[in-house]
Design brief:
Layout lengths: L5 E5 L4 H12 L5 E4 L7 H11 L3 H4 L5 H6 L7 H10 L8 E4 L2 E4 L6 H5 L2
Parallel strand pairs: 1-2
Antiparallel strand pairs: 1-3, 3-4
Length: 119
């Protein structure tokens, strides 16, 4: 189990996010939970998460969300535009994101959270 604090960027309305959080708690881990819809992230935080995830901002976007289709139907956002879209519309951030130190993973499927415990 990691010695570092684990942070979960969480949307309680998302079943995958709830399941990932429950898996951590079942392992006796009490992560810092950030409800990013209530506490929106700024562009630096989103860029930092992308670096830890080893993903581009475009990959972190939830393109199936109605908000994405409504505001960005033309698609093909560059990295800066993708970050700005997630700052303006936090619902577009893929979830849940689990961070431990300089590593992060997407908890989809929820069992992915267990891989960060072995890191």
């Amino acid at each position: 189990m990691p010695n570092q604090e684990i942070t979960v960027y969480h949307n309680p309305r998302c079943s995958k996010s709830r399941n990932a959080l429950a898996l951590l708690q079942e392992k006796g881990i009490k992560p810092l939970v950030v409800e990013y819809l209530k506490e929106p992230l700024n562009s630096e935080q989103i860029s930092d998460l992308c670096a830890k995830l080893k993903m581009s901002p475009e990959q972190l976007l939830r393109k199936g969300e109605p908000t994405y289709k409504e505001h960005y139907s033309e698609g093909n956002l560059n990295a800066k535009q993708a970050v700005n879209a997630m700052v303006d519309h936090p619902i577009l951030i893929e979830r849940p994101i689990i961070v431990c130190g300089n590593q992060a993973i997407i908890g989809r499927p929820p069992e992915n959270v267990l891989t960060i415990l072995d890191a």
